[in-house]
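G., the chain you wanted modeled:
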Amino acid sequence: MKATSPFRLGLSALLAGFVLVVAACTSVDTSDTTEGGDDRGTTTTEAAADVDDDEPAPVEGSAFRVGFISSITTDNWFASLDTLDSSINRVYLGNAKTSMFKLSNPGFVYVPGIAATSEPVKAVEEGDVWVVEQPIRTDMTWSDGVPVTADDLSFYFEITREFKLGGDHAANFPPSVLSVTAPSEDVIRVEFEGEPGLATWQNGVGLAHFVPSHFWQPHVEEARAAVAELAGTITEEDAVKAIVAASMVDEDPETDIAEEDVTQADIDAWTEASVANEGLLVLYAVAAPMEPSTGPQVFDQWVPGAFATTVSNPTFFDSGTENTLYSDGSFRIANTDRGEDAVYGGGGAGDTVARYFEGPFVSEILWVEHGTKEEAYEQLAAGEIDFVYDTLGIGSGLRNELAANPDLQFSVSQSEGIRYMAFNMRKAPMSDLAFRQAVATVIDKEFVADAVLAGAVFPGYTIVHPGLTTFYNTEVPRAGWADGAPMSEADRFLSAIQILKDAGYTWDSEPIIDPENQDSVRNPGVGLTMPNGIKVPGLRIMTPSAGYDPFRASFSIWIEQWLNDLGVPVEVDPTDFETIVAAVFPPQTEATTTAWDLYVLGWGAADPSLPGTLLVEFFHSSNDAVSGGGFNIPGYKSERFDAVADAFTAATDIQSAAELTKEMDMILAEDLPYVVLFRASIIEAQRTNLEFPAQVIMGGHSGFPNVWPNAVRMRE
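Predicted structure as tokens:
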């Protein structure tokens, strides 16, 4: 997750289904700035060669060389999702396991993985618990030929709970999941303490990994032995002393615990946690080369400080599968050898946005460690590697430098997050919808993005990313647009003036549009007065400085100009990021939350499997920054929005959640607690003989890399 906020949302399913999204789902055309691709990511490749299942032959093809700009820190998959979590560790170890369901590449459509049904089985009530019995297919094997069974998921659940694994392991199995068992090899039985919502079942356990139990069982036994050994040495006296010492770590004497106050329950809990942690340490210390894989790659080796390799899996289950994303947001999966052809998330209508076959088409992937970003790009230019894994991409300066190399090509993609301007809706005039509409109308995002910033950013219109095809609402209104296109500056101002007039605003001197130049204001407005007869006070827009983010600074300067032309007395206050955060983010009081007017900041990526969760976090009235201590910073209150958000939270199927997400985004576009300004560009460079299945993708190839091993090709 590329968080631009002061906290990480912790939406674990984001990485449970890391996949590609084609930016062609947006309305912004960057074909003139994108080399080596066609039509915004529409890609067609040929089918993979047949594989002899009786005696798999190694995958033929060139090696794919990926440069890292920091170090690998583990070769243990368990640790990579918890204590040694990093994007690099996840990338090279993260393409080896299946789950009941997954998110499509691209489009993020919810599709079956090893599940034997097209949609998740609905939970039913059985006595005091709710139960799902989900069938799984029986024709998938690990790379060593051992069948994948329900025991592999049950095993993962048991060790997650037994050793109190953290990170994404724990997130896959929330506390309300009582058990995950295997009544047969092809059925997963999950018991919940209550009726499970989407985050618990479909996007929790449903996206949890199957782990090769036959490989890990001996290591688990070693961990259990270590636990038993430690448990035999811990005394109650040891526990009491440790509990007392832990209570004194902070500087707050009120949290200190005296020995005589330590209860037996405290002792038992401390002992249980201590021995479980010992097991976790043993499990996370296991070096795991050649751990069996269900994915296109099998982890081979890691030489610390140098490189790691994964070799392609000749028995990859989905080899030869044809994947197609349609413009209606649906996703088709067809495999001729298995006689399977199905469309998910819609009817397969509209244009083909992306189409590719799965391989793998490379013999191995070499993951090369570099000490610095500069070193990695030097090696790319020299032809020593094919691609740099760089989640931030490159700046225009480095691109211009690399563009002289005829062996390099570039892609320009939209980042996952947004940059936005927020209104303080606790005070006038920001509390007035008409005022917010007028402000949004005069902001010419397209002009700043294209003319001022030379296409370096993409104008933004929705909080939900347009690449999330299941959840994106194409009908969301765009302020400052008419008949499907941006208005001229004159029409923007005429529209904004009329909005304010209709709401009862007046001016001492109304803005006048220059009749000889319809793209400029001849006389700015003066003395804008609210419907209650009070002059609009001087307002302040807090924004990061140009040194921190020149894009947001540029937008803010133009917003200041347009609002002053409209007659709104406003000044931009460039300041440091932490000052803005301290002024607007919780904890806040009624006094501090009325001390600011507007600010410009950004948020990182939402959970692609359930992006509506972010909308609830940011805009439900219960998450008000003052009364609820949440991240509803503007103080937005809407009974209509809350009702839809509550229905979303209670939804138990993906389609209902998708429709409710679209409705929430529609309401927010109408009510405008935020004006979404833009999404940053991710510029990436790669060798010209490298073919990704989709050249332009949400977040760039480094944002969602799981499709690389499946379908990347190296031309001779």
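The first helix runs from residue 13 to 16.

Shout if anything looks off.
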